[in-house]
Design a protein that fits this description.
The chain is an alpha+beta fold. 33% of the residues lie in helices and 21% in strands. The chain is built from 5 helices and 6 strands; from the N terminus they run αααβαββαβββ. The strands form 2 sheets. Strands 2-3-1-4 form a 4-stranded antiparallel beta sheet.
Amino acid sequence: MNELKLKVLELLKEDSRRSVPQLATLLDVTEEQVRRAVAELEDEKVIVKYSTVVNWSKVDEEKVIALIEVQITPERGRGFDAIAERIYLYPEVKSVYLMSGAYDLLVEVEGKNLKEVASFVSNKLSPLDRVLSTKTNFILKKYKQDGTIFEDRQDDHRMIVSP
């Protein structure tokens, strides 16, 4: 991948609302070069979606997010891909990652309440063939996501006193 495409990706990752003229100015290239680079990145499925990072704690909508550690038995010939595909097709599932370590998959699930997430785990996820065990961790508070800090930090303005 050429350097221009990498720089475009970095700038769009920081802020996907940046326009072609803004990107061209920041990169000191023509708008046509930026348009071509973005089009190629989209065609190659390097850029698959433009999204917004939302601090849901500031929105009056109840939402529960869980990270579920899943141990599975890989399928002969397809490894972890077949079971990962079955899991990521559920609408409650927001992300699925193949992991190294004590478990195989990390599944991010979103629901309206604890009961909805628990129902997903017990009625849909755990009964799947090849799922050996699950461990559910509920997210209580997000401090930072995708490089964005959610907390309004208050600097300590007290005078430093030393002995």
